[in-house]
């Protein structure tokens, strides 16, 4: 394979990438690591043993093709917070462990430093996730630049910066009180509960302030987005933060062949691809709705049944992904004895991890009901699939506003309430079947509004592809980013 080498000085480039141990971060940063390695940069991707196991075929392939990338497995000492050793990913733990989980990171500092000091190529920079403020000290001690990689959109980064600067979350005590994000070119209303900030929940204040400080003191910012998608927000963010913002996405477009797409994030996806594709091949172009809510959010049994009833009533073909953690014995009985039999002509249930990127790339898929995780949105947009939006927590409410209100690429289900990991006996229904039915019919129907959305998202998909191709904005940004570090 001929690698497009970036013109570097004689110094060897060694980039150290440190994602958060959550699928929404590991996946795009693995893409970035592979992409940088293909451009001739030596990359150390810091992961943990369980997360490495999930992507073993990708690791194996990069060894076989001599890509200059090392997947560095640092043990994540979960036992320190009373969790079994294998719980190395946010999708393996209960929400009550999330905050202590961040604390475990501090224990990676010494092993990471030892690895970097012993490496034959001195590190040139660290690119670490915005939720990993502990890496600031490592970069300081090693005297190397540190870039913050933000998982979500430019709009989120800008809103987050402005509300942090004005200390809006410090001042609000009521979690349901509305506020308008300051210094924005459009009016965006949130509550403290669904604010554009990862750490707005009670008890998370220190992490919130550390993350803001680590962004403020970073040498530059890296965003998984592209200029044509949200130019005005990226430019404003760069202006207010006063440092270079490199847009390098959509990173999912790094994966070109079907096998890479279905392996992405978890090799289990590749095992399901044949069944899913055989089913999709039976359907006409753009007729199928893909329903999936990322790697973390869960629904209670009643909400799952309500969603199922809405999908059934809408009478459009669908693939619905249910997480293992959601399939309680009660849900399993309902699915196997009742729902799956009733909808078998129309619907395919995918249990556990699905090959999402491969599914969204299939020509039969014409809509995506999503929780608005930023990766899911970028994947949908870059593959030309319009969306039904159902945000659950965190950046998802901001991402929804970008998709629906700013870009006009989706239909909202209208929920503003944070709900993402309900207790097993929770009986709340957040979104009702009639609303689901109406949204599906609207998105998958033939009204002018739906057709316009399809045209717009197809245009944006073209822009996304151009951004990642040679001479495209994200391609050039990656070149310049590497050069800026190696000057
Ligand atoms: N994903 C997948 N299969 C699944 C669930 C999720 O491939 O069954 C991938 C999805 O394509 C995306 C990532 O996991 O790349 C989820 O990231 P996102 O930002 O959308 O949501 P999060 O999981 O962080 O809430």
What is the strand arrangement across the widest sheet? 3-2-1-4-5-8-9
The whole-number mean of residue pLDDT values reads: 93
Radius of gyration, in Å, reads 22 Å
Count of beta strands: 15
Q: Ligands in the structure?
A: uridine-5'-diphosphate
Percent helix among the residues? 40-55%
Content-based structural category = alpha/beta
Spans of at least 5 consecutive residues with low confidence: 1-9
* CA distance, first residue to last residue: 27 Å
How large is the count of helical segments?
Answer: 20
Estimate the strand proportion: 5-15%
Largest sheet: 7 strands, parallel
Overall, the morphology is: globular
Tell me what you see in this structure:
Its EC number is 2.4.1.-. This is Glycosyltransferase. Residues 433-463 form a coiled coil. Residues 15-252 form the Glycosyltransferase N-terminal domain. Keywords: Coiled coil, Glycosyltransferase, Transferase. This protein is of the alpha/beta class and 487 residues long. Helix content is 45%, strand content 14%. The chain contains 20 helices and 15 strands. The strands form three sheets. A seven-stranded parallel sheet has the order 3-2-1-4-5-8-9, sandwiched between helices. It has a six-stranded parallel sheet with strand order 12-11-10-13-14-15, with helices on both faces. Strands 6-7 form a two-stranded antiparallel ribbon. Helix 10 links the parallel strand 8 and strand 9 (245-247). Helix 7 runs parallel beside helix 10, helix 13 (301-314) packs parallel to helix 14 (329-342) and helix 13 packs across helix 18. The longest helix has 21 residues, at 448-468. Residues 1-9 have low confidence and may be disordered. The protein binds uridine-5'-diphosphate (UDP). Uridine-5'-diphosphate is lined by residues 22-24, 27, 265, 269, 292, 294-296, 321, 353-354, 356-357, 373-376, 379.
